[in-house]
Amino acid sequence: MDPTLPHALHFPLFPDPNDWRRRTAVRDAQPVAPWTPAERAALWEVNRGAGEHAAVKRNIEALGDPATRVVVAGQQAGLFLSPLYILYKALAAVRWAERLADLLERPVVPVFWVASDDHDFEEVRHTTYLNREWRCKRWTYGTPGFDPSGRSVFDIPVAPEVLESFFALLDTDSSESVVKKSQIHRWRSMACESRTLEDFFLRGLAHLCGSMGLVLFPPRLEPVRRRAIPVMEREIRHPGALSRRLAEKSGGGKSPIHRLGHEVNFFLHRAGRRCKVTVDGERFLIHAPGAPVSVGAEALLEELHQTPTHFSPNVVTRPVVQDLVLPTLALVAGPGEIRYLNQLADAATHDFYAVPACAVLPRPRVLLLEPRIERILGKRQIPLDLLEREAWGDVEAKLAGSELPEDLNRVLADLPGDAQAVLARLRTRLGELAHRPSVGTAFEKTERAWLQAADRLQDRVRQELRGEASTGADQRERVLEALCPGGQPQERVFGPLAPFLIQYGSDLIPWLLRKLDLDRRDLQVLRLGEGISDGTFQTEKSESE
């Protein structure tokens, strides 16, 4: 098992086929009402605006079928779909939906929950790329003349002129390829067409995954908020009850979700801000800009039923709302999500709201290995299993040349013995002649000279390799930047745009879809050179190689 995953997980990671059938039967016993034509129309309106794909339209229509089930993945609306694991989650949802549809012989729809109601702007405003010198560069999106504090991402406007500075940077500071200009042009066009950061995210993900039928699902939609009313209503009628239960089971404050017991597990939108709500005796405090506002339960309930779009789930209620509004069969989750889902399961969170919980599937963990990096590893005889084991110290040591390649070390070590063996065979062949004084002296001089020459050769080779290692220190740093930037997993740092999409084009995405191994729990190394060789996508050599 992946050591980053908890051992006491209350959800099955990889259920067998019979378990999937049992789970489906449980879900059938507690069904979600099929989505109405009006609800489906609202969802299609958002997806069509991001990119009109017939496969998405069909899947949205399938939500009106009581037999349909859903595999969901989700993440905040990171700038330029950053980081990479957003893409891996989306592709895994598509693959799992295909697999489960075949297994269960019923419609299974992949859905991406776009957590654009989140108001942590700092978390989504960055993207990191690899420049033409193979150096990590982080770019930060600014909002001149606009204060994003407390605002949901769906409410933060796109400033095309700010994004243009990033496109200009990519144009000059990224490696050349045959698809670079077209990729930058495509993303520039999407930026100019987008009204908000949510809109830009939706367009990017639809561009890459829309043809696969991935349904984009922003929870701010009125039908979603209205379906979520029972969860919000229970929070209002039982203020702080679940937070107190979570506080009791917090494990001394070491749990990923920290609760004191007075928190209400939703946010309220006030004056364009997403505001925290807490319990204050028999009343509620809305922590609005300026000063908290005290309201009673009845006033909140009235607002909830009249304007449910004012209410937004938090980290505790989001997975519950997801399972209430959609016929979810499984959730594709990362290690951090699984930790907090485990904590919620310990507190019987879904039971508190009387909502059935779906299965949890760990997202694939992936490292993309570019041909230019693979060639360097090959020259150093660095096996790919070191990458799969994330043994970056060993990789760095081999890149540094602190160890000679095993076969070369063996040849150099054998040189003295090989020289002596040649002379011994010659002595045997010469017989008595080899024992004559003049010939014997020549043998001794030759043996001594050969041994000295072998020593000099070994020293010279090692010196050259050390010198090469010294002059290659910059190359070593660049390779490590590409594989584990800053010592972090590649999938947590880079976005998909640079170097990957601008080097290999959008055809990289269906290739990734086919290559993902859903059943692997360790790091999967995908060699992009394989895709180039089979013609799935094309590239040309990097200028910096």
Polypeptide structure, described:
The chain is α/β, with parallel strands linked by helices. Among the domains are: 229-313, no CATH class; 391-483, no CATH class. Helix content is 50%, strand content 13%. The protein contains 24 helices and 14 strands. Helix 2 packs antiparallel against helix 3.
Compact summary:
By secondary structure, the protein is of the alpha/beta class. The protein is 50% helix and 13% strand. Among the domains are: 229-313, no CATH class; 391-483, no CATH class.
Largest sheet: 5 strands, parallel
Number of helices: 24
Instruction: Please state how the strands of the largest beta sheet are arranged side by side.
Output: 5-2-1-11-12
How much helix, percentage-wise, in residues?
40-55%
Instruction: Report the mean per-residue pLDDT as an integer.
Output: 88
Counting copies of identical and different chains, the oligomeric state is single chain
Shape field: elongated
Give the DSSP E fraction (strand runs of 2 or more residues).
5-15%
According to DSSP, the number of beta strands is 14
Q: State the end-to-end distance.
A: 38 Å
Radius of gyration: 30 Å
What class, by secondary structure content?
alpha/beta
Low-confidence stretches: 1-12, 539-545
Topology:
Blueprint: H1 17-29, H2 37-50, H3 54-62, E1 69-75, H4 85-104, E2 108-114, H5 121-124, E3 126-130, E4 136-140, H6 160-173, H7 180-193, H8 197-209, E5 215-217, H9 222-227, H10 229-237, H11 241-248, E6 263-270, E7 273-280, E8 283-286, E9 293-295, H12 297-306, E10 311-313, H13 318-325, E11 328-333, H14 335-346, H15 349-353, E12 359-362, E13 365-369, H16 371-379, H17 384-388, H18 392-400, H19 406-430, H20 437-471, H21 473-483, H22 497-504, H23 508-515, E14 523-527, H24 528-533
Parallel strand pairs: 1-2, 1-11, 2-5, 11-12, 13-14
Antiparallel strand pairs: 3-4, 6-7, 6-10, 7-8, 8-9
